[in-house]
Amino acid sequence: MRFGFELTYQQEWENVSSVRHFISEMLSREFGGIVESKKISTATSELMENVVKYSTVSIANLSIKCDKDNSVIYLIATNAVSKGLLAKFESIFDEVHQGEPKEVYKEMMLRSLCETEVSQLGLARIRYECNGDISYEVSEYLDGSSEFRELPNTSDDRLLTITVKIPILEHNQGTSCDKGEK
Question: What CATH fold (topology level) applies to the domain 4-83+131-167?
Answer without folding.
Answer: Heat Shock Protein 90 (3.30.565)
